[in-house]
RNA sequence: GGCCCUAUCGUCUAGCGGUCUAGGACGUGGCCCUUUCAAGGCCAAAACACGGGUUCGAGUCCCGUUAGGGUCACCA
């Protein structure tokens, strides 16, 4: 009877799961190797959570000698967007998460790699139907012809009677339909969905240990969930079990929104007589929305989309290290102990991952990013900064490119030595941090904001201070310059140093720092900048003098 | 509403019955250093949701309350 139904539904299928198990044999990998995957659907948007789970999944695979796969779950044709797959691949590559297997490249020539192909679900229909036929033949799945309206009506009834919604037990109209009834519908041209035959009622529990959440105790699935839609495309639940099995994935790392459907997945493994893989359900990254916490939303939160980080110009290491920090707080300790090791050398531990949603913290990301950029050479800052600026700030790119040697000198200011300056947050921050070195940007800033001179320094002092700097020969040493400036400060009635000033604040107009601030503002238009002597050297005598004169003129006339 | 998960400084967390007068990081404040801004050093404020148990002893185990979160589609 059930075999007849199977043949009726899938007359064209003559393969069995066994055939596919042979076609996709177990992998020969070292003991304890994890085979993991990222399996997004191509909806035109890569969520930061996807990068987070991929990072963990890839790291875990690599540190055990396993494989990280990218599989495309395009089972919802309605939501699919053109170019999404390329977008996913590109983003993965951008964050250094290139898969070992599956869809690995945008280039169509070398797009797909691996012996477990195809890696796109819409190309695997025959496989799913073999597995479907297997279930039908054993009475573990059945066709159902309910229309959308009928299902809607069912929902209403259940709601009114305060019953659990769904297709189950006596509500499952097609559960035990006669073969003739199925045939009749088929002859009418109706296309059925395939539903799993779940036990109902059942008090049974499913117990398993999640890699992150620990011991779990869930009710066994009693819903006759749709396995294959009427358009012959499987639902996620069915496809994921079949694919993970055939691709020999042994560690499923996914968002914890899947936890409630895990019992259905376990049920499928059981129906196929398979040992389920290990699961690890990751809590989603959240943010505060008013008083409540919620998952980062693609509609409301720009930072939910990974392209945001790219557009802002965060180096990929910065995002990766921030996420690694979120995954394992011990990463910080490791980083301190191994300041120069690549983050990929860190051994991620699943059982150290948090079980509840962490809040996304941009301030912390910025801190991580500043550290990372501070560790780069001027050349690297130039290259990566230029790569970003060419796309996102062409005007800045043109300015930086105009005199590469000069730009490199700019990026090298306070970059050498034990404590490199940490002032660039990301590539889009270059303009704010270093813009004043470039005449166009400097002129703009002065035009817009003027000179934010310290108020305690009178105008007549400003002229004298600036003249002294113009007169100073830049070939002389930093010590000479500081000594000269100190003498000047003193002669104008300012304390030689902060200490002297603090001892006797009333007897000075201010201290050396205030005098230097005048120079800083004249030279840069800003109150916070790197070392002044280095700035003078970088700008060069001519350009520096020009700026100092312009400022002096401004305050002389005032 | 049913089911499930979670609950330590503002944030990320360490903690797996005594070593917790609860540790670290980011952030915040102060001091030192300093030509400025960073960095760095030192210091400070800052948390075990609540109520019951169990125990000689509970942040750690159990129960409840409360509060968050997730999920209940022919979407993933």
Could you explain the architecture of this structure?
With 558 residues, this protein is an alpha/beta fold. It has four domains: 2-11 and 125-282, Rossmann fold, CATH 3.40.50; 25-112 and 283-375, 3-Layer(aba) Sandwich (Rossmann fold), CATH 3.40.50; 378-447, no CATH class; 450-556, Arc Repressor Mutant, subunit A. It contains 24 helices and 15 strands. It has helices at 2-9, 17-23, 48-63, 84-94, 125-137, 148-160, 179-187, 236-246, 262-271, 307-312, 316-327, 330-337, 362-374, 378-392, 394-402, 404-412, 430-434, 439-449, 459-471, 478-491, 498-503, 512-524, 532-539, 541-557, and strands at 35-38, 67-70, 101-103, 112-113, 141-144, 193-196, 205-210, 214-219, 226-228, 251-255, 278-282, 286-289, 292-295, 494-495, 510-511. The strands form six sheets. Strands 1-2-3-4 form a four-stranded mixed beta sheet, covered by helices on one side. Strand 3 and strand 4 form a beta hairpin. It is elongated. The structure holds one RNA strand of 76 nucleotides.
